[in-house]
Amino acid sequence: MKLQSEIKSEITRYSKELRLPVFRNEFEQVAQEAAKDGADYETFLLRLMEREYDTRLENRKKSQIRQAGFPAKLYLHDLKRDLLPADAAEKLTLLERLDFVASGRNIILAGNPGTGKTHIATGLGLKACLQGYKVYFTTVHRLLTQLRESHAQRTLRQMELRFEKYDLVICDEFGYISFDKQGAELLFNHLSLRAGRKATIITTNLGFDRWEEIFGDAVLTAALVDRLTHKAHLVNMNGESYRLRETKEMMKK
């Protein structure tokens, strides 16, 4: 019969080989708790498996958040909802259910700077990560740079395949820079890959009637607007800037 120390050593060895860190680090504590409660072997094993599963699930969520590339962790519960534009405050309750991700519908957050567009988009993305969805956050400028590089290196198809697999893509700051013809076509083709199948959130400071200014092509602009807005949630984000309000409050003090 093996000694208790030998058994513990073998449990540690096997759990390390099988990559079960919680088993390795917590089996003694769980065994003591089970013994104290008078639990049977099956209950002890279940408790240990639950801890391993819960830890892996938590680590997976953290990994998905890191890989999404959020510039900051702006959660929905940190929003001052009473300061949001009326349309956003009204629609946010529905959007945070994340049904739009499951159904592959887009969200367009359009309005003047400083009204919470990026915060809402990031908050929805973080919540999606926590619910197991694969999310990618990018600015339109960064996305276009990546597209140009991939096109030059002839790796555009690989980038497209990765882009199509995300459950949710967030394209921030749409409208801050204009594109040349090649850039407009690359962006149009790339965003069109997800149309009607996977969810995309666009934040923009320009109304649709001004998108031609950044694309420089009326036909291309009309086609992109049509694809992005089909069955999409359109949120009017025009209102007073958060930053302007904070500045005014500081000046009062």
Strand order of the largest sheet: 2-3-4-1-5
Instruction: Describe the global form.
Output: elongated
How is the biggest beta sheet arranged? Answer: 5 strands, parallel
Beta fraction of the residues?
5-15%
Q: What structural category characterises the helix and strand content?
A: alpha/beta
Contiguous low-pLDDT stretches (5 residues minimum) are none
| Tally of discrete structural domains | 2
The H/E string reads: HHHHHEHEHHEHEHHEH
Distance between the termini: 77 Å
Q: What's the architecture of the largest domain, going by CATH?
A: 3-Layer(aba) Sandwich
Highest-level CATH class of the largest domain: Alpha Beta
What is the residue-mean pLDDT, rounded to a whole number? 89
Which features characterize this protein?
253 residues, alpha/beta, Rossmann fold, five-stranded parallel beta sheet, 12 helices
List the helices and strands and how they pair.
Blueprint: H1 4-17, H2 21-37, H3 41-68, H4 86-95, H5 99-103, E1 107-110, H6 117-130, E2 135-139, H7 140-152, H8 156-165, E3 168-174, H9 181-192, E4 199-204, H10 211-215, H11 218-229, E5 233-236, H12 242-252
Parallel strand pairs: 1-4, 1-5, 2-3, 3-4
Helix pairs in contact: 1-2, 2-3, 3-6, 7-9, 9-11
Can you describe this structure?
The chain has 253 residues and is an alpha/beta fold. It folds into 2 domains: 4-67, no CATH class; 69-248, 3-Layer(aba) Sandwich (Rossmann fold). The protein has helices at 4-17, 21-37, 41-68, 86-95, 99-103, 117-130, 140-152, 156-165, 181-192, 211-215, 218-229, 242-252; strands at 107-110, 135-139, 168-174, 199-204, 233-236. α2 (21-37) runs antiparallel to α3, α3 (41-68) packs antiparallel against α6 and α7 (140-152) crosses α9. It is elongated.
